[in-house]
């Protein structure tokens, strides 16, 4: 699979650690791997700004409010931001596979290959019942 992805994404594959991690989890499933294995110490306090929003004045509470009750455009912006800039474990502290799947049409990735890879991941997870 690694050779196929290198062929598809070329030098861009090495630009994001998340891309490599996604490939690994495609074969074993994110839900079974990530359930209950998070350290709470890296989760920001409600009033703190998450590190993946370094350039916006937005709190953790506001991020979670948008994810729960925001407009489709707001949710798309927040989810995209998390997928592009958050560490792998932190992605799953904020999102579920269903969150990504349900809002996928509203995600605006900076790099087209990121959209393609997440589409591929969602397809693989769906085939395995996740």
Set down the secondary structure blueprint.
Blueprint: H1 2-9, H2 17-28, H3 30-34, H4 60-69, H5 72-85, H6 88-94, H7 97-103, H8 112-127
Helix pairs in contact: 2-8, 4-5
The ordered string of helix (H) and strand (E) elements is HHHHHHHH
Ends apart, CA distance between termini: 20 Å
Rg, nearest Å: 15 Å
Helix content: 55-70%
Mean pLDDT: 80
Structural class: mainly alpha
- Determine the number of helices (DSSP H or I, runs of at least 4 residues): 8
Which residues sit in consecutive blocks of at least 5 with pLDDT less than 50? 31-41
The fraction of residues assigned to DSSP E strands is under 5%
Number of domains: 1
Give the biggest sheet. none
Query: How many distinct beta strands?
Result: 0
Task: Please state the overall shape, judged from the principal axes of the Cα atoms.
Answer: globular
Oligomer: single chain
Structure in words:
This protein has one domain (2-28, 45-127). It is globular, with a radius of gyration of 15 Å. It has 8 helices and no strands. Helix 2 runs parallel beside helix 8 and helix 4 (60-69) packs across helix 5 (72-85). The protein has 130 residues and is mainly α.
Properties at a glance:
0% strand; mainly alpha
What's this entry about, in short?
With 130 residues, this protein is mainly alpha-helical. It is built from eight helices and no strands.
């Amino acid at each position: 699979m690694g050779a196929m992805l290198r062929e598809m994404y070329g030098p861009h594959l090495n630009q994001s650690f998340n891309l490599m991690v996604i490939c690994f989890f495609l074969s074993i499933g994110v839900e079974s791997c990530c359930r209950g294995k998070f350290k709470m110490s890296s989760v920001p306090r409600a009033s703190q700004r998450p590190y993946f929003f370094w350039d916006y004045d937005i709190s953790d509470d506001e991020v979670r409010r948008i994810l729960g009750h925001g407009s489709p455009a707001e949710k798309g912006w927040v989810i995209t931001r998390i997928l592009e800039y958050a560490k792998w474990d932190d992605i799953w502290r904020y999102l579920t596979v269903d969150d990504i799947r349900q809002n996928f049409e509203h995600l605006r990735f900076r790099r087209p290959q990121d959209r393609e890879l997440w589409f591929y991941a969602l397809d693989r997870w769906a085939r395995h019942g996740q």
